[in-house]
């Protein structure tokens, strides 16, 4: 009996060794293939070092013998996924452990959703209205990251501290900050403070994923639903945005842009979902140097090269970056970033016609003037809603009556798309409450 047990144990050990050997060969084959399942890095280690591209604990060794030495001596699997490692790091552990981490990321997302906004000037009320719309329907806890001018901080504290959702919402206030040596240039780029969003991956270093939105955003369904797109990213995608236009005949980028832009009509950065861990690790292709640059290295050179050719500031810089790195962008439909351009020239967001608007984006100040009364009606209804009131009688029904008054406008003719998803969100919210969720 003892002999049988020893033989069985020996067979089991041999099988385990064979399995580990198979994985090591698979990892080696991936490393030898072009791209190796991840982006290929700059071949010139000296150039990368000059560009400041080394990572913590990674140094600046290149391919060949130096890389082979690192493969034998180091496993960096604890801080980086296999397909995103520098080209000179490989090994069975990198492949094996990263596989488990990636599966964990897809199946067990963070319980807290992080939402960031940048507010300057007269944007306090508009920003608070946006935050309130996020709170109303969302299911998982929210962490707000609010970047604001110093004089706005007390106003945010007074309002947000009174939110009746203790435990569901937390917030942190930050000052507006730019790199010291170039702060003046970034501040005057497009609107005041707008380019702050470009530096979020570098400021919020402990945040893995983040949803950035402009102040003029209104959520008409749970933030959880757009947050779920993170689980749909493939191994190369680092961010998600919606197209700037659906109809090229009225597109701005394809008709007027003097710089590269993503896709057919460009992308709009008013709603931007980011895997910031991947953004911080990625080396970006660009048209300034053959060396790929990291996020913090590429921003200022891009601004210097294109500052005389860009109209929409930081959004144009993002378009340039994703033009050169299209594999890094996940594009979601227009109903997740519905703007006046989707209806003022006739309805051109088919997804919204079918399912309604999920996120309303009142850019160009349409919440505060009479140019687009349909957008203003939704904003006023959300702003005036009091937490705890019945959503049907205090929000939905009064809003529909106001929207019917706008039917003389192009957007008013399709006013039902403005309340279609809102109606469903309210129904779903009450259903969750009845189940005690």
Automatic annotation (TrEMBL):
Reactions listed under catalytic activity: 3-O-(beta-D-glucosyl)-L-seryl-[EGF-like domain protein] + UDP-alpha-D-xylose = 3-O-[alpha-D-xylosyl-(1->3)-beta-D-glucosyl]-L-seryl-[EGF-like domain protein] + UDP + H(+)
GO BP, one annotated term: protein O-linked glycosylation via N-acetyl-galactosamine
Name of the protein described by the UniProt record: Glucoside xylosyltransferase 1
Superkingdom assignment: Eukaryota
Enzyme class name: transferase
UniProt main location, coarse: membrane
Protein topology in the membrane: Single-pass type II membrane protein
PANTHER family reported for this sequence: GLUCOSIDE XYLOSYLTRANSFERASE 1, IP22168P
Keywords assigned: Glycoprotein, Glycosyltransferase, Membrane, Signal-anchor, Transferase, Transmembrane, Transmembrane helix
Subcellular localization(s) per the UniProt record: Membrane
Family matches, as SUPFAM superfamilies: Nucleotide-diphospho-sugar transferases
One Gene Ontology term of the molecular function aspect: UDP-D-xylose:beta-D-glucoside alpha-1,3-D-xylosyltransferase activity
InterPro entries, A to Z: Glyco_trans_8, Glycosyltransferase_8, Nucleotide-diphossugar_trans
UniProt biased composition (Gly residues): 51-67
Region named Disordered: 34-68
Pfam family, one: Glyco_transf_8
Gene Ontology CC: membrane
Family: Belongs to the glycosyltransferase 8 family.
EC number: 2.4.2.42
């Amino acid at each position: 009996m003892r002999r049988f047990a020893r033989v069985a144990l020996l067979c089991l050990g041999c099988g385990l060794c064979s399995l580990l050997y198979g994985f090591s060969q698979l990892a080696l084959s991936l490393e030898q293939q072009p791209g190796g399942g991840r982006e290929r890095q700059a071949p010139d280690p000296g150039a990368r070092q000059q560009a400041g591209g080394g990572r913590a604990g990674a140094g600046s060794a290149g391919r060949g013998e130096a890389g082979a030495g690192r493969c034998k001596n180091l496993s960096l699997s604890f801080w980086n996924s296999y397909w995103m490692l520098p080209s000179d790091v490989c090994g069975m552990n990198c492949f094996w452990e990263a596989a488990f981490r990636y599966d964990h990321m897809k199946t067990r997302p963070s319980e807290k959703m992080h939402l960031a906004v940048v507010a300057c000037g007269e944007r306090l009320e508009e920003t608070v209205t946006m935050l309130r719309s996020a709170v109303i329907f969302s299911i998982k806890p929210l962490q707000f990251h609010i970047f604001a001018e110093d004089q706005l901080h007390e106003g945010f504290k007074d309002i947000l501290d009174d939110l009746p959702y203790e435990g569901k919402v937390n917030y942190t206030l930050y000052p507006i900050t730019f790199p010291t040596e170039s702060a003046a240039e970034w501040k005057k780029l497009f609107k005041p403070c707008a380019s702050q969003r470009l530096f979020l991956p570098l400021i919020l270093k402990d945040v893995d994923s983040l949803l950035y939105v402009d102040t003029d955003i209104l959520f008409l369904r749970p933030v959880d639903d757009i947050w779920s797109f993170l689980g749909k990213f493939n191994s190369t995608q680092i961010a998600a945005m919606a197209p700037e236009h659906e109809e090229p005949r009225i597109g701005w980028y394809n008709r007027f842009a003097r710089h590269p832009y993503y896709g057919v009509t460009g992308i709009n950065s008013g709603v931007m979902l980011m895997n910031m861990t991947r953004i911080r690790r990625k080396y970006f292709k660009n048209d300034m140097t053959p060396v790929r640059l990291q996020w913090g290295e590429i921003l200022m050179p891009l601004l210097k090269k294109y500052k005389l050719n860009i109209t929409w500031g930081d959004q144009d810089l993002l378009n340039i970056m994703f033009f050169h790195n299209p594999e890094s962008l996940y594009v979601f439909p227009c109903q997740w970033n519905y703007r006046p351009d989707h209806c003022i020239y006739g309805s051109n967001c088919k997804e919204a016609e079918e399912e309604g608007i999920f996120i309303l984006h009142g850019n160009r100040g349409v919440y505060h003037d009479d140019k687009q009364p349909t957008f203003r009606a939704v904003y006023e209804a959300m702003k005036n809603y009091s937490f705890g009131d019945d959503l049907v009688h205090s929000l939905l029904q009064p809003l529909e009556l106001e929207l019917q008054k706008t039917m003389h406008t192009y957007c008013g003719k399709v006013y039902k798309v403005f309340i279609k998803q809102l109606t469903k969100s309210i129904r779903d919210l009450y259903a969750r409450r009845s189940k005690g969720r």
